[in-house]
Amino acid sequence: MMSILIKGGRVMDPASGLDAVCDVLVEDGKIKAIGENLAADGTVIDAAGKIVAPGLIDMHCHLREPGQEYKEDIESGTRAAAMGGFTSVACMPNTSPALDNAALIEFVKNKAEKVGSANVFPIGAVTKGRKGEQLAEIGDMKMAGAVAISDDGSPVGNPEIMRRALEYSDMFDMLVISHCEEMSLANGFMNEGAVATRLGLKGIPNAAEEVQVARDAILAKETGKRIHICHISTEGSVEIIRQAKANGVRITAETCPHYFTLTEDACEGFNTNAKMNPPLRTQKDVDAIIKGLADGTVDAVATDHAPHHVDEKEVEFGVAANGIVGLETALPLGVTYLVKKDKLSLADLLAKMTCNPADILKIAKGRLEENADADIVIFDIDTPFTVDVNNFASKSTNSPYDGWELYGKVEYTIVGGRIVVKEGKLQ
């Protein structure tokens, strides 16, 4: 590989606390040096006035392959990731068939190595077929390259199964990622409240999420094992996790940009691009999520990138698919609605999108330091741009952010020393 010299950017590495205007030299896919007045033959990138940071890590996305390639596939999904500044993504197992065995984990890894524009870390299923009945072959999946297990998209409803998953996965140092949803309470279409009443839609109460967050915190305490709670959306969930951490429970949590930028009001007009699971909540919940991010209760920002074909969204609200695409808007939404509004420092936002998810998943990524993999993002926090879903690299365009003016546009994405995005365009 040719060398790449990134000149004069504001270099930020949250893991080490580095925040300085300097240069970064990349050689043979690794970071060779970080310092002032570096020189080298090869490609030179003028990063003056831009942020140079570790490549972002999304610990929760859906690449839809195998089985749902009409929505997204590994190639298109990782291209979308690169456009959003993500150099590594962990993909959830709710594919067809589910990623519940070593052969399918190997398929995803091999396909990603051939066509991927970002590093892909598969997440295996907790139970066979994600049916919540029998544990999947956790050890085999670990050996094949899975970094965690989750039945995301479906909760593990049986507490005994979840308890055994925590105990068994710990033998392989595997993280359990929990989709917290009590199905007997969650048989609605959007947040339970005034907007749902006005629209005549059955609502989903906050308790549908919080009951299982509390259950899983108790199980983690009982077993002494690690658990990670995905896509939290309510004030109550934040408080349960805050208390659990204070009591020494080995629990971590993530939220998504839509839970700190949107409320249930986005569903007005039966906007199916605002239909997701868990549903958008109230301003009080949004404020609590932001406070949880600021005080460290919420460890990571993930996208829950959930691409759907237009025919699955342009239908009646009650039958529309849940979820939105998020890889190409996550960083700008964080910059615009957290950093620019003084809710979170840029270093803290980057930590929740780089070293924190890397540490939670125990992958050797998310840092700008000598000899580290040259996974780097360069972005602009000063110049606004307008979101245009028609320009997305994803196969799908189901986003409520079309037309929004945001800050934080990605200029370059470098993966393993290879320039994947240059001047805002895929290479």
Give an overview of the whole structure.
- The chain is of the alpha/beta class.
- The protein has two domains: 4-51 and 373-426, Urease, subunit C, domain 1; 55-361, Alpha-Beta Barrel (TIM Barrel).
- It has helices spanning 74-83, 102-115, 138-144, 159-170, 194-199, 207-223, 235-246, 258-261, 283-295, 310-313, 330-339, 346-353, 355-361, and strands at residues 4-13, 18-27, 30-35, 43-46, 51-54, 56-61, 86-91, 119-124, 148-150, 175-178, 190-191, 203-204, 227-229, 251-255, 300-301, 376-380, 385-386, 405-406, 409-415, 418-422, 425-426.
- The strands form four sheets. Strands 1, 2, 3, 4, 5, 16, 19, 20 and 21 form a nine-stranded mixed sheet that branches.
- Helix 2 packs parallel to helix 3, helix 6 (207-223) runs parallel beside helix 7 (235-246) and helix 7 packs parallel to helix 9.
Secondary-structure blueprint of this entry?
Elements: E1 4-13, E2 18-27, E3 30-35, E4 43-46, E5 51-54, E6 56-61, H1 74-83, E7 86-91, H2 102-115, E8 119-124, H3 138-144, E9 148-150, H4 159-170, E10 175-178, E11 190-191, H5 194-199, E12 203-204, H6 207-223, E13 227-229, H7 235-246, E14 251-255, H8 258-261, H9 283-295, E15 300-301, H10 310-313, H11 330-339, H12 346-353, H13 355-361, E16 376-380, E17 385-386, E18 405-406, E19 409-415, E20 418-422, E21 425-426
Parallel strand pairs: 1-4, 1-5, 6-7, 7-8, 8-9, 9-10, 10-13, 11-12, 13-14, 14-15
Antiparallel strand pairs: 1-2, 2-3, 5-16, 16-19, 17-18, 19-20, 20-21
Helix pairs in contact: 2-3, 4-6, 6-7, 7-9
